[in-house]
Design a protein that fits this description.
The structure holds 2 protein chains of 2 kinds. Chain A is an alpha+beta fold. Chain A contains 4 helices and 4 strands. Chain B has 7 helices and 4 strands; from the N terminus they run ααααββααββα. Classes of the chains: A alpha+beta, B alpha+beta. The A-B interface holds A 1, 3-4, 6-8, 10-11, 14-15, 17-19, 29-34, 37, 41, 120 and B 1-2, 5, 8-9, 12, 16, 19-20, 23-25, 52-58, 60-62, 64-65, 68-69, 72-73, 76.
């Protein structure tokens, strides 16, 4: 039984450390994924048509139709992307702007995303 | 990505996993069951996401903690309940008895006679007739019980050997 308690305590400690780092020390990149990782992850899920997983990156839930439109737009312009690169354009305390460049043999396309911070970085889709 | 951030994440994950593996028991890698291996694979994938900051450390802790918690609870229940132990780990199976391969046991474990010969050679057994019982244990290790005559000579056999030698000399 002591082991169960120790595992639960260690897990709670790491979760608590993350919360402390974010709330008390304004950590935005170390214990939480930085905006570039969030934007890259979101685009990867959209390109792979994993709508439910893509929703987890969003500040507000959007319709599947909207995500499908975004995916189709990318597919029309770039085809099947072979490379994803995210670049931070600007950053405030709780806001960031990230550019994700998708490249393939067909061409290259950059999509800009605005992100807001609320315990984690989330994408604000217009 | 700044190097020091990776170092901080790696240190946090290392200390956390050290505690977790310490808490999950004293079994060594060689004694690991196939399910221990599955848990290790999942944890390996989760830590990759945490190190490269694709998930927050809180989510990493949540995922790993749940896995280890399930693992420890399973082991605890298996320790206290024999039926549950057998359900989770299976039971040892006889694959060779009195020098002859047990066809049913081999089929159940999906082993060929060639595999059996290989396992026995690893145990230093060349002649199957020397084996009374060979069992495949829950951790997929082979345990071999040899016939009395096939055991190496021990100190307790000394009087008998001396007697035999005296009889030969006379």
């Amino acid at each position: 039984m002591a082991r169960v308690v120790a595992v639960a305590a260690a897990t709670a400690l790491l979760i608590g450390m993350t919360a402390l780092a974010v709330r008390q020390f304004d950590d935005r990149d170390t214990f939480v994924p930085p905006p570039v990782a969030v934007a890259e992850g979101f685009v990867r899920e959209v390109v792979e048509k994993r709508w439910a997983r893509a929703q987890t990156y969003l500040a507000q839930e959007v319709s599947e139709e909207k995500l499908r439109e975004l995916q189709q737009g990318i597919e029309e312009r770039v085809g099947e992307p072979t490379k994803l690169e995210a670049e931070e354009l600007s950053r405030g305390d709780d806001e960031a702007l990230v550019n994700v460049r998708l490249s393939s043999e067909k061409g290259s396309e950059a999509v800009a995303f605005g992100l807001t911070f609320d315990t984690e970085w989330k994408i604000d889709l217009p | 990505m700044e190097l020091w951030r990776i170092v901080v994440r790696a240190l946090a994950a290392y200390v956390y996993l050290l505690v977790m593996t310490r808490m999950s028991g004293k079994r060594v890698v060689g004694e690991a069951t196939p399910f221990d291996f599955v848990v290790a694979l999942i944890v390996g994938d989760v830590i990759d996401d945490a190190l490269w900051a694709e998930v927050s450390m809180a989510k990493f802790a949540g995922a790993c903690g749940s896995l280890f918690l399930c693992d420890i609870i399973t082991k605890l229940v298996a320790f206290h309940s024999r039926p549950f132990f057998l359900l989770v780990h299976g039971r040892p199976r006889v694959i060779l008895r009195n020098g002859a391969a047990d066809g049913r046991g081999l089929r159940a474990e999906q082993l060929t006679e060639g595999d059996l010969a290989h396992l026995l050679r690893l145990e230093g057994v060349d002649d199957w007739r020397d084996v009374r019982v060979a069992m495949l244990e829950e951790d997929h290790g082979l345990s071999v019980l040899k016939c009395d005559g096939a055991e190496p000579v021990q100190k307790k056999d000394a009087p008998r050997v001396r007697k035999m030698l005296r009889w030969r000399a006379s």
